[in-house]
TrEMBL record:
GO terms for cellular component: plasma membrane. The keyword Transcription regulation does not apply. It is a multi-pass membrane protein. This is Probable membrane transporter protein. It is found in: Cell membrane. It comes from Cerasibacillus terrae. The lineage of its organism: Bacteria, Bacillati, Bacillota, Bacilli, Bacillales. Pfam families: TauE. Belongs to the 4-toluene sulfonate uptake permease (TSUP) (TC 2.A.102) family.
Length: 237
């Protein structure tokens, strides 16, 4: 049963990541925590998401907003060490509770057509928050997703910029985790077993992306955010 669940988690999460640019950590991390210890689930998520970003970077480079990407990266440099300190010192359940409430409130605002104006300062802030969440709970996607949805960013630009940012954030986060928290063989064996499933997900996800219009993409975004917020809220108790 655990093996079947593992296969479904990796396959579906890979399809989401490829077709939307943000699905893997949002879907995979919560469910991998049912099968693995927090350290193992987070590091597997980082490693496999990095593989997906590497595989797609040549296909999406024309959709990347390089100016926003640079500001995200600069902002994340502040957030990354704060995240690992949070992982080591702070009660993760309390962190999940706070994040879940923020995600749910912001998602409801977005569904009510609340919109925000993008700015350089907000780009830096979103990058910092994303960096903090990557090293603390392995989920950089929610702040990016909320920000891009609030600014009504086109799905191509959202996916391209997000995947390019992940290429940096996941690599650095994985290195930080291994150095300061440690790792084990289970992380790498399980990640190796998951690779063929990731490759299948890459292929299917590309097909879905081409067929998904902007309205369907936005609705799917709200569903993922609500799922993430509700899951983190329940998990915090």
């Amino acid at each position: 049963m655990d093996v079947l669940l593992f296969i479904v988690i990796i396959l579906v999460a890979s399809i989401l990541q490829t077709s939307t640019g943000f699905g893997f950590s949002i879907l995979a991390t919560p469910f991998l925590l049912l099968l693995f210890e927090p350290l193992e689930a987070i590091q597997m998520n980082l490693a496999l998401s990095l593989v997906i970003s590497l595989a797609l970077i040549t296909k999406i480079k024309q959709d990347i907003d390089t100016d926003i990407l640079k500001r995200f990266i600069i902002g994340s440099i502040v957030g990354l060490p704060l995240g690992i300190i949070t992982f080591l010192l702070i009660d993760i359940k309390q962190l999940k509770l706070g994040i879940s409430i923020i995600i749910l409130l912001l998602t409801l605002l977005l569904m009510a057509h609340f919109r925000i104006q993008s700015s350089k300062k907000r780009d830096f802030s979103v990058g910092g928050i994303s960096g903090l969440l990557t090293t603390s709970i392995g989920m950089p996607g929610p702040p990016l997703l909320l920000y891009f949805s609030g600014t009504e960013t086109k799905k191509e630009k959202l996916r391209g910029t997000t995947l390019a940012f992940y290429l940096f954030i996941y690599l650095v986060s994985l290195i930080i985790h291994v150095i300061f928290v440690g790792t084990n063989h289970k992380v790498w064996i399980s990640s190796g077993v998951a690779l063929p499933l990731v490759l299948i997900g890459l292929y299917v996800g590309q097909l879905l992306f081409k067929k998904m219009n902007q309205k369907a993409f936005r609705i799917f975004t709200y569903i993922l955010l609500l799922f993430t917020g509700i899951y983190l809220f329940i998990e915090s108790f």
